[in-house]
Input
Amino acid sequence: MTVKRIITEPNPLLRQVSKPVSSVGPEERKLMDDMLDTMYDANGIGLAAIQIGIPKRIIVLDISKDEKIKEPRYFVNPVIKKKDINKSTYEEGCLSVPNQFAEIDRPSKCEVQYLDYNGEKKVLSAEGLLATCIQHEMDHLEGILFIDYLSKLKKSMIIKKLSKNKSNRIVV
Ligand code: GNR
Ligand code: NI
Output
């Protein structure tokens, strides 16, 4: 289990479309373990593989409120089968868009089909924060970030800020 460095915007890697996984083997499970470690270390509730530079269609989530009770969820090759016509609004953040938050509307419920940690085919009906988070992570697999839903002006202001922070940071 290793904590990896999370890639932040602007970075062309985050715009890459991730590739389906052919089977869930030791390499994929090691990746999922590292992703979970990286996510917990960064106090996030979700992470897509591309955020640590691996363009595979894998996401991990843990939306449990109690820090001591871990409820990790693993999704390989997730596909959304159904989306509710009703929308919910959540204040979203992203580990790849540090310290920026915005209210985003998304379908309030969704049904997702995926392979789990053991490579078994599963279907999950999600609502609330879980549904939002699944859709946020699945956007990462398509190279989409939540700031893409904002006005051009808001988005460009955020990217400008992040670029500035990056050029000021001393990389060790
Ligand atoms: O930690 C995260 N919190 C969050 C809050 C509202 C909606 C989505 C998220 S996902 C985010 C972690 C992340 O960047 N995942 O890609
Ligand atoms: Ni994100």
